[in-house]
Amino acid sequence: MRRLAALVCLLVPLLIAVPARAAATPIQVYGSWHCGNDACIWGAVRDVSEFDQKNHWLIDRGDGRPSVNVVVLSFVHPVKLLHKTTDAQTLDGVPRGMTADIVNYFKSRGIRVMLSIGGITYTDAWNAALAENAAQFGRNAAEVAQRLGVGIEIDYEENSGADLAGLQSFIDAYRAVLPYDATGANQAARLTIDLAAGDRWLIDIGRKATADWLRTTAPVLDYANAMVPARQPSASAAIANWQEHLDGKATYAPPIPPLAPAKFTGSLYIAEGNKVLPECTGFGASLQNTTGTFVQTAAPNGAGTSSGLLGYMFWAAERPSTRGVTTLPPNTCEGGVGGGATAYSIPIPMPALRQS
């Protein structure tokens, strides 16, 4: 009887159904938006030594390895880029602080660099640039990308009545100069877009991007960033937002189709108001830790074939606003963002991205 009982004890666990879970997919995109020292204007040339004192954590998590594999310099003014404006804060359409020296500060460490066009402050400027000459706007963006060896991020935050035809013309013009490059080898060909945290804001842009520009079968844009919500979410709220992109919104008229996991990142705050967040200072208590299983295993639900989001983006390095906490010393983020880079074995430089 004892032998029979022992045999039953061995067999029973094998008969209990265990829910299937996708194998974890390695995170590929792990980066930070960067606002410079003047609340995202980048209006003055930076001395590289001074810049390094404020931002060394990005290139060194404490052991000589970078904390991120992409930095997005934010923001370029759309109309100034269209007009190739030169003024006190701008040189030939680009903020004076976004110099080749700053780009190379990151690229020399294997960190990819992108320039973000827009942001919520420049929504009207996006509308104006698209209305005036969307195709020339796109060509100018491509020229800057080639000259600096950077990618371009579309951050067009028009929630109602977005100029989708103009945005299509901008993208078409950019791609006529710099075709989609699945290998990622041509860094200037990297063209991404920012979407809302979930599917309930920027609805028209989200629908258009998901249906026409972010398909795995015929990609036009490399990927999207699901941006941060109004404030730092809980882990469950962050996951719920990201799941909306995976599911789409079939009940909307017209519906928003599902987005492939391999076509977007989730975003978190590292600096918010007057709080020093664990996302910056301590990986163990951070959302990039507690949401990590979802981000690496999220299953496709009607689009794509591979599981797992591309990774994480963090808002935002140095001084994203004139008030509140920044990532300046002593609030540097090698313990949070850098700790996550170690925990997730983030590849540096960024590898060729999954395409399905």
UniProtKB/TrEMBL annotation:
InterPro entries: GH, Glyco_hydro18_cat. Pfam families: Glyco_hydro_18. Residues 88-227 form the GH18 domain. Keywords: Signal. Transmembrane segments: none annotated. GO terms for biological process: carbohydrate metabolic process. It comes from the Bacteria. Residues 1-22 form the signal peptide. Gene3D superfamilies: Glycosidases. This is GH18 domain-containing protein.
